[in-house]
Amino acid sequence: MNDEIFDSLLESVKQADGIIQGKLKASRTKTFAEPEVKAIRAKTGLSQVRFANVIGVSKRTLENWEQGRRHPTGPAKALLKILDADPHYALKTLSG
Questions:
Q1: Can you tell me the mean pLDDT for 17-24?
Q2: What is the mean pLDDT of residues 50-59?
């Protein structure tokens, strides 16, 4: 690695550290909308109990998502995105 590339990478690391420590502001940020869980469930036509069972969460968790008290994360968020895009095929696949 030549000195120019190394210096550029080192500067990037220093900037990232400054952002993490709150000393610098990020030049750009990306935000993603939270999934509209109730609307996604409505697309499937399932009750809360059945929808919760299909996606592998408790009814209480689903209620919290639908009422905005909590938000899905990780795999649950990805699964909801798939259900939103193609509810028929997603349900067919999840049902086996």
A1: 91
A2: 96
Q: What is the DSSP letter of 68?
A: T
**27-43 per-residue burial string, b: 16 or more CB within 10 A, e: under 16:** eeeeeeeebebeebbeb
User: Does residue 29 register a pLDDT over 90?
Assistant: no
Contact predicate 72/29, CB 8 Å: no
What DSSP letter does each residue of 15-29 carry, written as one string? HHHHHHTTSS--S--
Whether the full predicted model's pTM is greater than 0.90, yes or no, is: no
- Find, among 50, 47, 55, the residue nearest to 81 by Cα: 55
Query: In which region does residue 35 sit, left (phi positive, over 0), alpha (psi from -120 to 50) or beta (all else)?
Result: beta
Identify the helix (H) or strand (E) that includes residue 50.
Answer: helix 48-55
Q: In this structure, are residues 83 and 40 in contact, taking their beta carbons and an 8 Å threshold?
A: yes
Alpha carbons 24 and 93: distance in angstroms, whole number: 46
